[in-house]
Specification:
Elements: E1 4-8, H1 11-14, E2 22-39, E3 50-70, H2 72-86, E4 92-101, E5 106-114, H3 127-136, E6 138-139, E7 142-143, H4 144-158, H5 163-172
Parallel strand pairs: 1-5
Antiparallel strand pairs: 1-3, 2-3, 2-4, 4-5, 6-7
Helix pairs in contact: 3-5, 4-5
Amino acid sequence: MRDIWVFGYGSLMWRPGFVFVERQVATLPGFARRFCLASMHYRGTTEAPGLVLALSKEAGSACEGIAFRIAAPQAKTALAYLRARELVSYAYREERHAIRLSDGRVAEALTYVSDPAHPQFRGELGLQEKARIIGKARGPAGSNRDYFFATFAQLEALGIVDEELTALAGRLGTREETGRA
């Protein structure tokens, strides 16, 4: 094993769950952060799925997030953890892509990308429907609203503007409000 980079664009940014030795803002070209996967395991249930973030391949796009460097001695443990967490239903594909770190370096990073052929893929949903689902869903890991606002707050703290999340925040109101969507 060698050191590995992991690119976080959603909950990995604010709850990585693994030991890392370096953390930097990074950009992944060719992908966009989208609420496009139904969640029955974490932020919803089988009867009332939530909606979670995934990377969607979109030409001309670039997703800003956080890259974590995991030292070689922890890499095997971190990979096992990430696969158990992210590949619970295989709605994500584990891929490696070049990212640009904020210090200018380019690195290859492990990424979790949406699988548009997976039954949980919800790429066709409009903004209003996404807000409705996020505003109401709750699963074993908590409310979909909390997941949204934790991600939104992390992006704001990093100075990252995400147009879709900003538009959704306008529809969802504040973190404390309920039932508005």
